[in-house]
């Protein structure tokens, strides 16, 4: 795609080049996948690689809830947007959320905003869905 844009640039105005940069930026943004963890009105977004790191740490735990959470996260991280697949939010049950919270506390994560926000959201008390 970049080669096609370079070939078209010959004889174009600077404005056309700006449009080309926007096209490239949008194409890049589409390829940088994000995995959504919903928490009520707020959501935490992890990049595909960050989500796969969390899933890997969960996989190291030998219990059903951790394994299930890891698989759900991996499934969303590996969605192929270019093939027309759609990404949905990672829907974890309370046991899986507890395992995710434990992994985030046990493993030394980079001090990146996404991990900090995920830890913060998981530490907040949850309301039960009782009717």
Explain this structure to me?
By secondary structure, this protein is mainly alpha-helical. It folds into two domains: 1-31; 33-123, no CATH class. It has helices at residues 2-9, 14-31, 48-60, 64-77, 94-106, 113-123, and strands at 34-39, 42-47. It has a two-stranded antiparallel ribbon. Strand 1 (34-39) and strand 2 (42-47) form a beta hairpin. Helix 3 runs antiparallel to helix 4 (64-77), helix 4 (64-77) packs across helix 5 (94-106) and helix 5 packs across helix 6. The longest helix has 18 residues, at 14-31. The mean pLDDT is 77.
Number of helices: 6
From the N-terminal CA to the C-terminal CA, the straight-line distance is 53 Å
Regarding quaternary structure, how should these chains be classified? single chain
Return the domain count: 2
Strand order of the largest sheet: 1-2
Q: N-to-C SSE series?
A: HHEEHHHH
List the helices and strands and how they pair.
Blueprint: H1 2-9, H2 14-31, E1 34-39, E2 42-47, H3 48-60, H4 64-77, H5 94-106, H6 113-123
Antiparallel strand pairs: 1-2
Quick tags:
mainly alpha; 131 residues; 2 strands
Tell me briefly what this model is.
With 131 residues, the chain is mainly alpha-helical.
